[in-house]
User: What shape does this take?
Amino acid sequence: MTPILDAALRSWPVDPWLVAGLAVTALVYVRGWRVYHRRDPVRWHFGRLAAFLGGLFAIFLALASPLEPFASLLLSVHMAQHLLLVMVAPPLVWLGAPLLPMVRGLPEPVRTYWVGPLFGIGWLRRFVAWLAHPLRAFVVFTATTWAWHLPALYDLALRVPAWHYLQHVCFLLSGLLFWFPVVRPYPVRVKWPEWLLFPYLILADVSNTALSALLCFSDQVIYTHYTAVPRIGGTTALGDQSAAGALMWVPGSVAYLVPLAAIGLRLLFGENQTWDRGRLARLPNRSAGETPAVPARAGGRVPLPMLAPKHPKPRFDLLRVPVAGRFLRWKRSRAILQLPLLVLAGAVVIDGFTGPELAPLNLAGVLPWVHWRGLLVLGLLVAGNVFCTACPFMLPRTIARRVFPPTMEWPRRLRTKWLAVGLLVTFFVAYEAFALWDSPRLTAWIVVGYFVAALAVDGVFRGASFCKYVCPIGQFNFVQSLASPLEVAVRDPAVCKSCTTKDCIRGRGDVPGCELDLAQPRKRGNMDCTFCLDCAHACPHDNIGVLAVPRAGDLVNDPFRSGIGRFSRRPDVAALVFVLLFAAFANAAGMVGPVLEWEAGVQRDLGVEPAVLVVALGAFALVVAPVVLVGSAAWLARALGGLRFGAVEVATRFAFAFVPLGFAMWLAHYGYHLVTTYRAAWPVAQRFLFDQGWTAVGLPVWAACCCEAPPAWLPKLELVVLDCGLLGTLYLAYHQARNLVPTRQWLGAFAPWAALAVALFACGVWLVLQPMQMRGGQ
Assistant: This one.
């Protein structure tokens, strides 16, 4: 094996984001293609599948093979890379007719609530049709090719990785745009005549020939970068440049002239539109004499066929999963889940009062502020309000109620979220003012306070008054679970209509009904639901499950919700959402280097106590800023959108659109600490157990639990999470504006809230890119 070949085989770059993206794209396409192939194997033959996967493989070869590292050493290799991105991958992708399979392969909620509405936006369809015209596509493609081959831009792309990525993206997108009119993937129909493709491809070949000749016959090196790199294989920089020009010239001309010849033959001799009767006879559910239905043209448009299944698929139900479902249907399952957390809470309290005062060495300084918070948001992301299901504060209260049942009702005037809003603001301000995360003793007192408060409130008042109206953790979970994928809901509403006992809310025997007054037939979303599953255990018809739902799907509209009413009539719930939204960004800002340095400078310049400054900043971030920014957005939306509601009602209606963005910031923040400090739990647990006399666990290795440097993929993942949150918020705000303003003034109602969302998103991006103070592993 030659040294060059050996070096090439050893130079496979590792790019997990690219590989994961290509794999997900292939999975979605294959999932959709299989559906169409089963229904019409003639149209959706294996050739389409092979073409699309071949296009993705060409992208993989261009960007994730030894071509990538060698591109900075040899211009000819770089040219091969660009040919794969421009002339190989795009036509193969379009030959796979990816539009319908990619849409059909998406999860149903994404297809229904995100992608489907895009096809109904008239200006977007018109813009795509305008851009895909051969004239515009040729201009964009040619301009992109020549611009990136200018020496200044080309050398910049070779020096700066970010510009190199941008160059690849531009080449791939312009290639997709160029080959779209040539392939015209099904079910696209165009209005312009097909003969336009003759000058289209000929002029593209002329442009390609001119640029290739310039590289081949130039007597000097055009791109100076290649004069400063080591030469491979004994070639000179000028010889390598000529080879690159020849590579661009010959295969490039073939790529243009072959489809040109095919189009000419089709125009000369026509295209056989008859279907093979023998193959038609083998189609499922179709007799030999039938012909497949072809979408009729209507003004150049055709409907998108088979985007929805013939029969809706049953929703995923966690209670139907063989092992987990059977366990959760058991009425003692919640107590079993609460016991381990009760033991951990007890350990945190004991270590907080008796263990080391240094937080990274104490269970109270590590488990609540790193692991519990991180796992909490992950549970909300993948399932729902799972912490409230296993809440340890409820177990002693439940046992106490068996001996001393409560007799009073929660005061009517306090049946709102305003008390919880005040407690949350107080907690977030105290968190920074007293550095709760750095004080094991204060953390232990907080845990004890939760147990005492739960016993005191629910020991006197019936129902789950503490959970519904008081508990700050519960309010956090209620709001964030609005973006969760699972919901406790009825399986068949018709069964509930015929039910006369209503045991889901009244209870049955020793099984209590819903203590939060959520009647299942009229329940919508996860607000105020603790996932206790008492309703499911009490239902005599087994008609309640934990069902999959579109994330934040119920926030698009404003239905009546049992136990809550309509969100548009609940400014207290809207205030809760906004407090948690701004707290997500304020809490993260209090941990980044530039903000901490600024705070130290203000304390030094003004001579104020740190706690006083932190309290003032907390009040500004959680009270003043939300009132000013939200109030301004509501006033502008009311004025620009012609809304007849008051500013408070406008803010209330748009508040719930910000749930995805707030949750994304909490997930990015808490996820960061979990990823960088997850290893700290075991050494701290070893120390605690060793102190209690469990010497078999050995002595902790403290060096192994130090905070790890954030991996390179973590900031990128945080940005992706924030991107998803922003898109979700803009989507919900758009629908809210369209629901409130059916006329064209909807844009005026939407714009202020979109501006607020983008501003918060920009703050989140800046926070993610800053060095963040560690937790639990210093």
Q: What stands out?
A: The longest helix spans residues 237-269.
